[in-house]
Amino acid sequence: MKLLAALQKEAQKLTKVKAEAERQLNAIGAAVKAFGSTLAAESANGRKKRGRKKMSAASRKAIAEAQRKRWAKIHAAKKAA
Predict the structure, then answer these.
(1) What is the rounded average pLDDT of the residues 53-73?
(2) How many structural domains comprise the chain?
(3) Contact between residue 55 and residue 49 where contact means Cβ atoms under 8 Å apart
């Protein structure tokens, strides 16, 4: 009988721990929800998200050309080997 009583006490302790964990999880969920609505309100108030910077056509062309040169160098090394 002592074993059964001990197991019941442990079960009660675990139930209390579970309830506390659920309470904390609900509090965190509410905080995340509130924070998300705050961010949405700020963006609606005229704050703008920062977009990606545009790359000029000349820059894209220079990068593409440099990559083609690297590929050509690698392919030339493979053919020589």
Answers:
(1) 94
(2) 1
(3) no
